[in-house]
Fold:
Amino acid sequence: KFRTLSEVAPVGICQMDDEANLVYANDTFLKIIGMTMDTAQDLGWTAALPSQANISPLEYLSSSVSREVQFVRPSDGFVVWTLFQSKCVQLDQHDDDHYYVVAIVDMTEQNRLEQERLEAIEHAEAEQRQRAADAELYRHQQEIFIDMICHEIRNPLNGIIHNADFLLSDLRQLFEYLLEEKHELVQKTSAAAEAGTMQAQNDPGAGTVQEQIQRSVDAIDAILICAKHQQVITNDVLALSKLESGLVRLHHTSFNLRSTLDVIVQMFLAEAAVVDVRLNVDFNSLDIDDNYIGDPHRLSQVLGNLLSNSIKFTSTCKKREVTVTAWLVYDSVISSSSPSPSPSLSSSILKFPLSPSLSAKKTNNNNNIDNKDATYTFKIVVSDTGVGMLPDDQSRLFLRFSQAAQPAGSSSALYKPQQHHGGGSGLGLFISKQLVQLMGGDIGVTSEVGKGSTFFFTFDVKKDRSAAPTKIAPTTGENITGEPTDQILLPLSASASASASSASMNNVVTIPRRILVVEDNIVNQKILKRHLETAGHVCVIAQNGLEALNLISKGLDRTPPSYDFDLIFMDMEMPVMGGLEATRRIREKEREVHISFSHTTTTTTTTILSPIPIVGLSGNARQEHITEAQEAGMQLFIVKPYQRHEVLDVIQKQTITTPASSIEKTFV
Structure:
């Protein structure tokens, strides 16, 4: 019975004596070890064990624990993996007579499948890592390409805009001079004619020259309009590339919402005044003391886009008003007990409070609630009395490359296509929508032809109950494409920030400064030099970072050390030595001089140098560039093309405290 059972069993079964000699084995066992019964008895079943196995046969048999045992068939060398199980059987309880029963299961196929599975997993993981590496490489290459395009396009634009401004300024001065000359000539000839000494006459050539100058001024105005239009479109396309590549990130920081919105609106007061548009604001429901965690620069970008559009499309209307309103519409702390609608485009008009007063009451009831994880949703509305839009235009307004068209049958005087298009790329609102969605909100519009438009968007923030807010300087902002148009203020000390915020915003030079301009582009050199010298400053040019380092080192190597300049404008990308490396080397030199000089002095009072202000100039404005500039030691970062007043404002702010960049300190 035992033999019959073992012969049909799917596992190898054998019996061995107390010395591990094979007594019986079924066919499955013999097949697994690759031997016949005679061979197994003559050579021993252990001949199928690997030669490197240093375990005696009795050790295999004495353990009752299942183990993996590897056999190598003597006939063909094929390796068989088995699950080996043995049991010792006592013949008599009163003596040591015993034998062993062994059962083995062929696990070769299972092991092979498991190995293939593990190899497949490892291969898939390797492929995934490779794809991730390829995607990261592609993303990095895209960043480099976008940065290169930014730099290569904005540098020429910077030259075009500033040189056109120079020509325009010179021609206007010449025009005014000719007018004065003509006026004096008329007065002289009139006086002579009255005295009877000569006949009054006009200079026919003067009018011709004035007409030529006026035509030249008109041509330069057209150049400026085209260049700035090209700048807007370039920024739009670059911003779209960044959005589609996933390169746009929110950079959360602490900020005061009320003061941030005030600053953003202030940036458009002059633009609105030029076209006689009344700009109204209502931020009364916002607490002046509330600080939040969010991205104030992206908020500035979206609101700036909406304000710019509203002013532009209202500037030709009879009634010219733009109104900006902001209020809290959703508080997760208040809403935790009773569900409140989440902000969405389809429900933002119906479900959100239609006036700040409704949400202000809710906010006042929550003053004693302290929840750091609470989410606050704010709504900003920009309404105007402009030309308005058709319903079809509203439905596709936030699509890429989409602009409103002239309504059928509308008056051309009321609704001009070129006014509504505004020469844009059709990307500004599309980009704004992407940014608003990044901030956890949505954006929408209601409009009626001839009556105006109302744009609104929401965004989420968390309350900051600890850190001091990051304030945006009055000249800091971003255009509709995500690239800062003015200055990006890097975090400074409290004293430096205070002096910057208190600096006068006009371009009146109180003290002439010595400015070092580090720039390899000859056109940009001439532009900055002219701006600085016409403002009364002294300008020195360095062709690259190494020249700048040598100029600064000359002053720091003196005894006592000093600076020959009050401020440095440093281009980021230059041959020989770039702006970042030069800034790092200058900061290292300053630290060395500070340590050396403070340790060698023998007096109790000595002069310790403050770091010389370094302002970065670049056509790139990604957060990585700003971070790199800050880490290298730059105080400020200006994006090309910049405006003249921005350069002069920087000089006013960064050198307002101490012209010579040195202060007196007393050691205890």
Observations:
- Confidence is low (pLDDT under 50) at residues 336-369, 406-423, 470-509, 656-668.
